Amino acid sequence: MYRPLHDGWTLRTADSTIPAPVAATVPGSVHTDLLAAGLIEDPYRDDNETRLGWIGRTDWVYATSFEWHDDGHERVDLVCEGLDTVATVRVNGREAGRTANMHRRYRFEVRDLLREGANTLEVSFLAPYAYAEEQRERHGERPGPYDEPYPFIRKMACNFGWDWGPTLVTSGIWRPIGLHAWSGARLAEVRPLVRGDGVDVHVRVERTADAPITITADVAGVRAEAKLAAGESEAVLRLDVPHAERWWPRGHGAQPLYPLTVRAGSDQWRREIGFRTVELDEDAFRLIVNGRPVFLRGYNWIPDDCFPARITPERLAERFGQATGSGANVLRVWGGGVYESEDFYSLADRTGLLIWQDFPFACSAYPEEAPFRAEVEAEARDNVARLAAHPSLVLWCGNNEVIEGHQHWGWRGPLADRSWGAGFYFDLLPGIVAELDPTRPYWPGSPYSGAPDRDVRDPSTGTVHIWTVWNSADYTHYADYTPRFVAEFGFQGPPTYATLRAASSDEPLTPDSSHQKAEDGQAKLLRGLGEHLPAPGSFADWHYYTQLNQARAMAFGVERFRALMPYCMGTVVWQLNDCWPVTSWAAVDGAGRRKPLWYALRRSFADRLITRQGAEIVLVNDTDEEWTGTLELAARDLSGRALETRDEPVTVAARATLRRTPPEHRDGRLLTAALGGERAVFALAEDPAMGYPPAEYTAVVAKETGGLAVTVTATTVLRELAIFPDRLDPAATVDDQLVTLLPGESVTFHVATGRDLDAAALTAYPVLRCVNERT
């Protein structure tokens, strides 16, 4: 019998920093409790982050009381799903246990500490900085990108700040906590190791008595049974289910799920599983599901909030909808965050989003000595077993950019002979995965080229991260790469106007009103415009041009890598989401609003894509059906008139590409390509050199269910037409962005809003924009 203990909590400092306890929410965190009590300002607004550093340097105490009455069970355990991070747990003033790892679950036997009637529960958290800095002093400094001690505490690394995130170092009971009363036996661990035609269910029980135990497992109408004799605690139940339908990644088939129920005595475990196989062709870095290579296109995922307890199932569903709505089939859970919740992986199971799971190590050298090795082993065993049931999880990865740091970031001299994490990535973690989850591949890190002595930046094998673009090179430099798999690459853009406006009290807004954590970030945004777009003369222009340039840069990269299929088999954008309102690489900003990048990626991630690569048009068909029809190619002038055309029948095989050379004309300024209802328009020079006529159009606004329809008809060419209704209604959204129209063509934007927006404002600067608008 499980009983949550989420009511009646208070929070106080261990000293007198806060003179009286405040009400606390569990699950939650110190920051959110202080915010709810009115003791701090919103950490995400203006520069409030910088005034809250004291929270991570303070010891905190959570306390509650509860009634308990002996119901005859032999064991009562205090189950802590997540404590952040270094804590002492006391029941009725007596110590029940200690913790030092945000990433693992804890269970403490407390029956002997409980008493009839009123009981107290207290969780005292040591200041994270105090613990991490003490460990750093003990083990010696480790090189990394930030002057923060995150490698010395098993905690969400990005709490300590990142080049997109604030330094908000948390403490708290961040996942559920409660009492579990039981007798006889309990299911301590259930690991379903799925085959394509069945499942081997590995079970470990904990006992209070040595009587024989019968264990059963049921799935899809098939049952298996095992008997544990006195003193035995582990069993494997094999269930063959040849009639089960296969689980497929989205875009490759359906996602049938089957309830698996395991029982031991009165205890029961139940999850949904999917039958599928997964392999990794390591030389080519191709993921193979059910015997079929899958081109991975999607996003890196960071924690969706600096305070993870605020992330609800509804919020996750919105983010997953944004990922799948843009055409993604994979999320990479990045190594500076956390092992995500059951809700996260269950959503992935249902939607067919593949999950690449990093172990939580990122961008820094890590000590391997005690107590860290034991903590890493415990958390890895806990989470590998916890997540084994999820068919969406297809890859375990040892770390993010740690091996690259050791090879390329000048660490070897400062490290001398100190450990840096190699023992984790090449020994401990692969051993745990091989033991507990051999159905899934393991990869030591990303980027990584397949062997410790290979250069991780070699694009011919394994995975690469491309950061020359953004840091130093124009986005057209993506065309110089011919990689096997791009696991990380990105280009910055500001958040939406409504998000920026809500996060800043500046009046008027300026480019510096947005949080910017990247080194030299503002200058890189302007340099990145290069010859692609005009220099902005106002905040509104800066906002539109930098968002547009982000969208173009990432579309350029994604389409380059997709056009290399099947040599290249993955393009994973940095990043889908933000944890707060910030100028960053995300497609969805910190308030959950879609940036222009999202709309561009929806085109670039489409199952069928027409893209221009150098002097060629490339047709990408990532479906199971041939793509046949007449390919219509035309070189056009700026009036839209066809100067040279070429029509030819084409067949693009399933999961394949086809290249064709388009017609040329000395007066051609635009190139159009159309096939089977898909059309793309390409400018043949950078926009400032195109000589566009000033934009002329008509715009008609009509009411429709749920909002407004805005129909724009082009009199001249309209380049990258976009509408930003959140400037008028922060809750408003639009179904499309960045549309290029030829003269005489029309597009209807559907604006979802509950307000009666002014039609004139909706169809004028700075809400309705295009590159060649009249000034």
Overview of the structural elements:
With about 775 residues, the protein is α+β, with helices and mostly antiparallel strands. It has five domains: about 1-180, Jelly Rolls (Sandwich); about 185-275, Sandwich (Immunoglobulin-like), CATH 2.60.40.10; about 280-605, Glycosidases (TIM Barrel), CATH 3.20.20.80; about 610-685, Immunoglobulin-like (Sandwich); about 695-770, Immunoglobulin-like. It is about 20% helix and about 30% strand. It is built from 14 helices and 44 strands. Strands 3-2-4-10-7-8 form a six-stranded antiparallel beta sheet, covered by helices on one side. A six-stranded parallel beta sheet has the order 27-26-25-24-23-30. A hairpin with a 5-residue loop joins strand 33 (about 625-635) and strand 34 (about 640-650). Helix 5 (about 370-385) runs parallel beside helix 8 (about 420-435). About 45% of the residues are buried.
What is the CATH class designation of the largest domain? Alpha Beta
CATH superfamily of the largest domain: Glycosidases
Strand order in the sheet with the most strands? 3-2-4-10-7-8
What about the largest sheet? 6 strands, antiparallel
CATH topology of the largest domain: TIM Barrel
How many helix segments? 14
Architecture (CATH level 2) name of the largest domain: Alpha-Beta Barrel
Distance between the termini: 70 Å
Strand content: 25-35%
What class do helices, strands and sheet pairing give?
alpha+beta
Low-confidence stretches: none
User: What is the total domain count?
Assistant: 5
Can you give the helix content as a percent range? 10-25%
The average pLDDT is 97
Task: Based on Cα principal axes, name the global outline.
Answer: globular
Number of DSSP E strands? 44
Q: What is the radius of gyration computed over CA atoms, rounded to a whole number of angstroms?
A: 28 Å
